[in-house]
Amino acid sequence: MKSRVPVSEIMTKNIIALDRSDDLIRAEQLFKRYKIRHLPVVREEQIIGMLSYTDLLKISFADATDDDLDIESVVYNMYSIEQVMTKDLVSVTSKTAISEVAEILAEKEFHALPVVDDSILVGIVTTTDLIKYLLEQY
């Protein structure tokens, strides 16, 4: 296995993100449309939080159906993105070694990390990205 390969080699660069003014209905739509599980929340290009599909499931019935439920809308309107998102983030830079990213994901039990260079969100790396990379090595 190659040593010191930067995370920029495996991170997702086409970032699908939420603005802090978006609502949870929009978040659910993005999760389902793009079949993703993590959405960075940004103010301009700076990350201010991360919303996971699991965060949404904790307050809703989002996994119950692909149809819109009135009860979901009511629940979603009770909370803002900022109330549900994780604010205390751990991030890495695009030059961080993949091995270091793996250690952080394993130790902290995260499933995604924002990749930030000079305070700008440049990507996101997930456990899926890491597994795909490891599979390519064997």
UniProtKB/TrEMBL annotation:
Entry protein name: CBS domain-containing protein
UniProt keyword annotation of Cell inner membrane present: no
Keyword Membrane: no
All residue ranges annotated as the CBS domain in the record: 11-69, 85-138
Database matches in InterPro entries: CBS_dom, CBS_dom_sf, Diverse_CBS-Domain
Upper classification of the organism: Bacteria, Pseudomonadati, Bacteroidota, Flavobacteriia, Flavobacteriales
Swiss-Prot/TrEMBL keywords: CBS domain
Pfam families hit by this protein: CBS
PROSITE patterns: CBS
